[in-house]
Amino acid sequence: MDELELLKKDWDKSKKNYPNLSKEEIYNLISKRSSSIVKWIFIISVLEFSLWTILSFSLDSSNNAIEKIQSYDYEFIYYPFVGISYIVLFGFMYLFYKNYRNISVTENTKMLMERILKTRKTVKQYVIYNITFMYLGIILGVIMELSNNSETQILISDIKSEGENGIYIFYLIVAVLSLIAMALITILFLGFYYLIYGLLLKRLKINYKELKKIVELE
Amino acid sequence: MKSDSEHNFVELLQKHQNIVHKICRIYSDNEHSHKDLFQEISIQLWKAFPKFRGDSKFSTWMYRVGLNTAITLYRKSLRTIKSQPIESVAYKLSYQDYDDTKDQQLKLIYAAVKKLNDIDKGIVFLYLESKNYKEISDTLGISEVNARVRMNRIKTKLKTQLNA
Hints:
The complex is a heterodimer.
Chain A: H1 3-13, H2 23-60, H3 63-72, H4 75-104, H5 109-148, H6 150-162, H7 164-217
Chain B: H1 4-27, H2 31-48, H3 58-83, H4 85-98, H5 104-114, H6 118-128, H7 133-140, H8 144-163
Helix pairs in contact in B: 1-2, 1-3, 1-6, 2-3, 6-7, 7-8
């Protein structure tokens, strides 16, 4: 007799041996998992946010810089600059919260997919914002040093007394050094971005792809 | 938040849960993985449920989504087993307890079926569920010819394995 025939006979016979879950048990099975997915997405968002916040705080906290700024009379730029950065920071905090809220009330797969994409987009915008803000900080710092630092002032007047061309070369060097600093910061940020966010966003992407597969299945 | 559709879904799944249990029986080696797979399939069914419009029978749709989930998970677990050889040994040990079949020959056939690849397992499962080749090919998304060819190969494979 064919092996599969034998198997089929046994298969038909053992029909009644399977466990029988109640409706309540099935309901619990489904809801437990979908809420854990939501929680997981939220934890990632919080993690993403706090990492950047910690980083910005650690860069901001050098007291020397504040004293220097006060001595330069640049407070009128510095405080609005910092103020705006915190407003934007809180803005992003709100956006992350909103993403989380939206995801937790998602009812169907397509909506969840859209919201995963939106969350990914917010994170990317956040990283771009942070890098841009760093650039602005560098430009501001360079201008501040050039126009206020007494040592720099002496250097500039020395160069100027030696001839017209010297000052252009000096500014060119400053510009090149600033660009190098910007490039280094970009590499640092993007490296950080790929290490932490890249991994998290990849997980979100996998989740998104799995959802997409389920939608296409149907 | 228990919506109408959720009630409806749970009722349908409860009624047809045997299909999921049977898929689990083919694709899992022990009670623990049976439970895991059952939950995973239930979740995937629930996620896909908003798209189920009743064009096909609920049970037919369940075969499709359920088998696809099992196949996807099986592929994933293959990767894990490769990196964790100790665990796969543990599975094999408890496997005998999980299968309550008394007949020695049947045990061997079941064991041989479990050694088949994910798609072939699906074909055997649908065959055991008395599906014809048209239904098998529709459910697994392969051509009817391919289903027939695979079935012949499965038969040969089982014969050689069992007579070795």
